[in-house]
Amino acid sequence: MGSVDTVGALPRDLVRLAVSPRDKADAIAQAAQMLVAAGCVEAGYAQSMIRREGVANTFLGHGVAIPHGMAEDRALVRANGIAVLQVPDGVEWNPGQSARLVVAIAAQSDTHIAILRRLTRLLQDEDRLGGLFVTSDPGDVITALTTDPEVNAPAVPVSDLAKRFEWVLDYPNGLHARPAARWVDTAKGYAARCQIRHGDEVADVKNLVALLRLGLTQGERISVSAEGPDADQALSRLKATMLELSVQERADAALAARRAKQPVIGWHPPGAPMALAGIAAAPGLAIGRLHVLAAADRSVPDHPVPLSEGGNILHEALSATRLQLKALADDTARRLGPSEAGIFKAQGELLNDTDLITLTCQLMVEGHGVAWSWDQAIERMAGKLAALGNALLVARAADLRDVGRRVLGQLDPGLGGASLHDLPDEPCILIAGDLAPSETAGLDPSRVVGLATAQGGPTAHTAILARTMGLPAMVAAGPGLLAFESGTLAILDGYGGRLYPDPSPEALSSARAFIAEQDLRRAREEERRSLPASTRDGHRVEIAANVNFADQAAFALSQGAEGVGLMRTEFLFLERGDTPDEEAQLAAYTAMQDALNGRPLIVRALDIGGDKQVAHLDLPREDNPFLGVRGARLLLRRPDLLDPQLRALYRAAKSGKPLSIMFPMITSVPEIIALRGICERIRAEVEGPEVALGIMVEVPAAALAADVLARHADFFSIGTNDLTQYTLAIDRQNPELAAEADSLHPAVLRLIRMTVDGAAAHGRWVGICGGIAGDPFGAALLTGLGVQELSMTPRDIPAVKERLRDCDATALRALAERALTCETAADVRALEADL
Ligand code: PEP
Ligand code: MG
């Protein structure tokens, strides 16, 4: 009998080759009859299979159909089994869909998932599948449907691939998600199959979940092997990545250990008040009323849709989530730093996990709805990871659920978990079972002053993010935490990991005094940040911040920002699943003006295209998006995007608070003239005031023609990220070339000098808002080149200001002249020693 349980025992009489059924019903009848003859099912099963066709589509795609009975007819199944019909000429399964391999399944429970899993893998191997449609050897079909390396794993000794090396993992925290994601990235750059073996367990290096499932800890020996045309290159690059990360991982662990040894500034409450203990996750003391997040309603309704449609829906939701995570990683990198952004990059990698997608498809094939299947697949995989009992894997299960929730939100906005949208107005201490990393990253610091969770751990991404955000936090406090009533006044001690509910007046005043003392200390530190960036000889440079949302402005100001030099408005579009209308945009710009309280604000019009794709805009695919309809080119073609944005901006400007508009990716005078014309029309329509209209200089054409463009633009801001990319012809996203994409390359510096000179000829000012502005040496050099404003990630501000205050403008000008004559970027950087 062709039992799925006894893999490898699919008998030849359950495979019929070269059949020509009259139609689909005939094919199903023949397959059912084979299953009856094999004793797998009762005669009524054929009817049940036909009924299933009426409510679900069993066509898997690529010429494969998998008819099976209704779930409620499982009693008709006596033993698990499959029967296969090969139909070389195909039989129409649905209009336009022809089945050439009909795999009829009889399963008492979900055991046929093993077959489905093999089939879904086969669907990705078109050559092998094509062979099965015409083979005259039933053995080929039997092997394809019964060989499953995972099922056979215990019996067959695992072996390495053709080329290999051994390595002892020396990452102090084991193989956690961020380094693992880098391994995956590296392996994916090669066609070769790459594998890691640890003892008897193997994992595909291109599969993040499989790697994490190995649960590798420091000191474990692994064998890294590869097979394929570029196996040697893949292995040597993998080795380089692993070793490079060793240095980083060890340095991180040493830093963490040093921090742990530092005397902890702590708060000692008077008396011995009652406290709930957890694990300290982020230092700081917070006083506030508790806001207990109700456990999210986990029930995801099961609304079946035809399988082919379901596949498309899932595909689109996954693509949209990938873009959303990329935007979140980008935004987090700019706001909190690259290491924190790595959390969301690793999460994005989880979406490529083939096991996860396959499991979802299998559940859909069984007739379940997309959202339900996805949710089940996430829960099963997260459950498996969590059950391995390794703290790191438990944390990764939380990431998996976080990603899962995002995809659910794409499938049905009602399922994305909206709990964080109704926080009280008064700042609160947030209490939750657990909080997803992306929820934590999105917390508004003016409304949440502390965070305590029942689950989680101090190394989980939520805790890392809370520390970076300066949000006092405690984790793993147990379910008792959730029993508190919302509204209860409490003190949260993030140094000691304690929550003090209903504190006494003495405890409250002691905590307030402690917080005041800490604030004073911080204020003293910030004082220097808030001093202007004036060189020793009195030359002042404006220092601004790159921030996208109003709630990030306060932090930027606390770091010493004197305004916002770049508000990337595409993030208003990227973070949501739809296009914000004029009113929503007006609210965002007004909120930013309010947060800046009279300080300068430069809002960049939408820069969509290139690396910033917005799924819901359905823009045509381009072969070279960086050279395509990007930035201003798109705006000029899409008045439906440009007009509402300009209307909102001119309406915001009516408040009288500072606001300038800047256009991205300008390459020519006609573009500026056209955009100015549109601005003028819209200004008249909304009766708005005149607003300075500037341009980004980020392509060499704009820098080379700066003297001409300056006649038409009120100011320039140089986007060195793109200017470097386009000048050096290096894709800014290509990790292989990242080290060479140095904005201090003399060619880029010469273009900056041309821009400054061109602007000066018409009395225009020039700023820089690319990443090099936040590099203290870069900032000094740019100042020497004559740039008047530097706009950067808020965290970079204190160091840049400090560096500039330490210099003489005359020396910087001489430095710039020398840099312009250097041969290489390395020579330019070497000049730092003389500064
Ligand atoms: C740049 O290109 O330097 C820039 C600031 O814009 P973005 O990074 O958003 O492309
Ligand atoms: Mg740019």
What does this structure look like?
The protein has 835 residues and is of the alpha/beta class. 45% of the residues lie in helices and 16% in strands. A hairpin with a 2-residue loop joins β4 and β5. α7 packs antiparallel against α9 and α22 packs across α23. The longest helix is centred in the first third of the chain and has 31 residues. The N and C termini lie far apart (82 Å). The N terminus is likely disordered. Phosphoenolpyruvate binds next to β20 and α26.
Keywords summarizing the entry:
binds magnesium ion; alpha/beta; disordered N terminus; 26 strands; single chain; about 850 residues; 31 helices; binds phosphoenolpyruvate
Secondary structure layout plus pairing:
Layout (H helix, E strand, L loop, with lengths): L14 E2 L7 H14 L7 H11 L3 E3 L2 E2 L15 E14 L2 E10 L6 H11 L2 H9 L3 H9 L2 H4 L10 E6 L8 H12 L4 E6 L2 E4 L3 H6 L7 E7 L3 H31 L14 E2 L1 E4 L2 E8 L14 H29 L2 H13 L3 H12 L4 H18 L3 H21 L16 E5 L4 H5 L6 E6 L7 H9 L3 E3 L13 E5 L4 E4 L3 H26 L2 E2 L5 E7 L6 H6 L5 E5 L1 H5 L7 H15 L4 E4 L27 H6 L1 H15 L6 E4 L5 H18 L6 E5 L2 H5 L1 H4 L5 E4 L1 H9 L17 H15 L4 E4 L7 H10 L3 E4 L4 H9 L3 H12 L4 H6 L5
Parallel strand pairs: 1-4, 3-5, 12-13, 13-14, 14-15, 19-20, 19-26, 20-21, 21-22, 22-23, 23-24, 24-25, 25-26
Antiparallel strand pairs: 2-3, 4-5, 6-9, 7-8, 7-9, 10-17, 11-15, 12-16, 16-17, 18-19
Helix pairs in contact: 1-2, 3-12, 7-9, 7-11, 10-11, 10-14, 12-13, 13-14, 17-29, 20-22, 22-23, 28-29, 28-30
